[in-house]
Specification:
This protein has about 280 residues and is α/β, with parallel strands linked by helices. The chain has eleven helices and ten strands.
Length: about 280
Amino acid sequence: MSTNILKIENVTYTYEDGTNALSDVSIDIEKGQKVAFLGANGSGKSTLFLCLNGILKPKSGTIYFNNKPIDYKRKGLLNLRSKVGIVFQDPDNQLFSASVYEEISFGVMNLGIKAADAKIRVEEAIKVLDISAFRHKPTQFLSGGQKKQVTIADILVMDPDVVILDEPASALDPKHTEIVYHQIDKLQSNGITVIISTHDMNHALEWSDKIIIMNDGKVLAQGKPEEIFLDISMLKQSNLSQPDVIKMYCSLCEKGILNKNLAVPKSMKELEQYIEDMLRRCENV
């Protein structure tokens, strides 16, 4: 049996104005994976996310969830959206209830779950996202970072198998970016498959298990992050840059300071360890 939780097979989507947003896209996403989608605005990432959640239906091709094609009937879509949640780039497009508590309660109450069980889920989501301090605050008075936390809680309370986050750090200050990324790590540590789109190459390298680069509605490349970021010509084609740690690693290798046979570091901490080990060996010569 396949370990894929999502399988995208030859998917094409064209908007009513004739814009060809997706062209023959095929991707496999495994259970529990951390997947980062990269690409310029308009490359098709957001359209694909809406297809994965059933908000948009491909013009051709098939999307499988847990090895079954998506069922676009009402019951099938309700089931899909309870298991594949999406957090939009702009939280104002997702929040509509008067207070934080009402907002988080809305989705789970509509699943037909007993009120007592729904309350337990809501309280757990509030605890996990650490948003108890503003649980009764009107949503329109929340900061951007707080709104993003609440939209993640909206999805978490549904007990999903997959969470999709479209630019989770968009318009956030460094403090709230760190908070949101920490919450994303919590999701994945609980076995949830997490998919994000991002323009942060450094975070994509360090965080993800798999990177998918999209360009003009097509998959330009997909694979392990350390392999993707060594392909300079492909990065140029998609107008992306190498993460800082890869640039430094490649420069040190070219100068003969580091051995090219070393595993490509995914973080500055790993690169610093390579340098420390090299200095230690020099001292012992």
